[in-house]
Amino acid sequence: MTLDRPTGGALPIDSPGEMRRAVEALAGPPGRGTKPMTSDLSIDEELLLHSIGWEPVELVTGASIFSVPMGVWNWGQGEITSASTAFAGAFAGAIDRIHRETTRAGGHGVVGVHVETSVQRHHIDVTLLGTAVRPVGGHKGAATPFVSDLGARDFTVLHVSGWEPTGLAVGAGFVYAPRRSMGTAMQQKSQNVELTNFTEAMYSARESAMERMQASALALRGSGVVDVTVNEGPIDFARHAIGFTAWGTAVRLAGDQHRTIEPSMVVPLDDSQVAFDASTLG
Amino acid sequence: MPDAPADLPEAASRRFESRAFTSGLTVPDFAACLQSGLRPVGFVQGFCVMQWSWYGMGSPYNRGLSPYGGGGGYSETYQCPHGYVSAEHRSWGRNYEQSWVEQAWSQGFGLAYGRMLEEATAVGAHGVIGVIDTSDRLSDLGVVEFHVRGTAVTVDGVPAPRGGQPWTTYLAGQRLTKLVEAGYAPVSVAAAVASVRVWAYCITEYLLGGGGSAWGGQQSSAEVTQVAAARTAARQLAREHVRAQLGGDSLHGAEMVVSEREVGEGDQEIQCLLRGNRVRRFKEFDPVAVPHPTVRLS
Asked: Which of B132, B219, B232, B265 to mutate to test the interface with A (most CBs of A within 10 A)?
């Protein structure tokens, strides 16, 4: 994606002049009548947001931790509902807190949310960190701001295409891989054979998680989910249990229909040969 | 070139007086800075080694005797719902801000940062770009080394600085050029640590140990509200500490690093480092058209 002037020309290149003006301005007072913002966006991301009439407001976070009762990771059958419930609860708690911070800061949504999750034997943790954003000049925060793990670039492309994020859709499933009978285990011992109990457990966890994520998207009044992040596999401390977690940004059409974007094709003239590969001293 | 500060190492003063410049910039960053009218004059650094004492109020070796009082700052008390059970029962718990840890970090970082600025002043710089800061434990005894370094620069066409602190930024090269083009002047790096200690009360201890939240054990999951509140508070405090350094300016390109250390059953310490660039708007955003998407054919 390139940034063009409305006239189609390139950005002005009087960089030394701008640098001089910037340095001279440091002698003056701070804050030109605007409320100071905090943000973890890059300058490219901030420019992209401005190009569609949005601006960063505040760095916002949400954290939650839910307990998992003793013994639930022992051998069993079917879904480990306590773990699935704890994951959903921790996500809901973290989203609730980031919502409140965003509304208080005057944001209408949060972009570029970093999602961190951790599944431990006795607790499941979720933390969210992102930048609250709003339409330029907006003051009052939205009552239910959207939370999105899309970066500012993806948010811009989504906006230009006529879509909008509605929130973070989440689903999780934790399932026991049932024990094989002694006879089956003996019979399969020397064979190359599919362990259907594990395969079926993975499918079961997957279906539970995806179904919940889709239901959560619908609850957020989204019509679909983009940029889904999936983590699946046996639990580190309970290898007979399978976990499948999925989250992504629920989206819906902002207008009547999708707007087609027509990208230009470009051939970069960069020299593929790397002439210099110095790295910053660090 | 102004006189070097008296407490700079003698070798450093001699080195700064030589005519060769030094820089920590990559070649592309170096080229971009020259293009923007910045001239590197010296790779400047500051060090500080701090020893932190763990025996202050609220240290892990000294669990408090009372749920009340404290050293100011964030604090929340949690009361046990069970009444008196035994002397070992955690009948109260507390989350509180460890302001002495935050101050120790600020002191170490501030001294190293100040020494870097001192070197930048000695070479006659207007600013320091491409700042990198690290803090590493030197031993297990609570000794931490702070190291702050960057490239001191002068700005073409701007009179030599007459006192005052050089401006600083974590950015360099094209990212710095774009920041200025977007209407922001770099003021300084901004960094702060928030440290929150959790003294678990009985419910937190039970929940994190796999027990129930009610007496007798309730086998369902529940939010560990004390820890959730501490984690949220640590992040909010870090943001507020940095905001206090902004003086009406904005924080751009922030990075948050969180570490947790379990001290006992349910007891933990949460440390949250937030750093970024303090920037000042010196002109309005130029109108930028909606970006035009492109597809690379290579």
From this structure: B232
